[in-house]
Write a structure and sequence with these properties.
- It contains two helices and three strands.
- With 97 residues, it is α+β, with helices and mostly antiparallel strands.
- A three-stranded antiparallel β-sheet has the order 1-2-3, with no helix packed on it.
């Protein structure tokens, strides 16, 4: 029996599904850590911000750094994914930063 799908001359374009949202997290993570580095430099250069007790300010900076480290650890493990389906085969590509 003649199978139309196996002997067809038509060109089919592959179906591509992408998830590029991890890039948003990577950019936010970079901005967060960059801001933390600037504020830490200013804190060290000026000897504190002078608004609270120095130990309280150091504790606040430590909390923000701990949050930044958690953010980095959770954000960098998420890959970009691309699923391409063409003529009965599927290819999944994962890309990290």
């Amino acid at each position: 029996m003649f199978d139309v799908f196996d002997h067809s001359c038509r060109v089919t374009t592959p179906l591509t599904i992408r998830n590029d949202w991890p890039i948003v997290g990577w950019v936010f993570c970079g901005a967060w850590v960059g801001g933390l580095m600037v504020f830490t430099y200013l804190y060290g250069r000026d000897g504190g911000f002078g608004q609270f007790d120095p130990m309280v300010e150091a504790g606040i900076m430590l909390v923000f750094w701990m949050g930044g480290l958690v953010l980095i650890s959770q954000t960098l493990v998420v890959p970009r994914t691309c699923l391409t389906i063409q003529r009965g085969s599927a290819e999944l590509t994962r890309t990290w930063l």
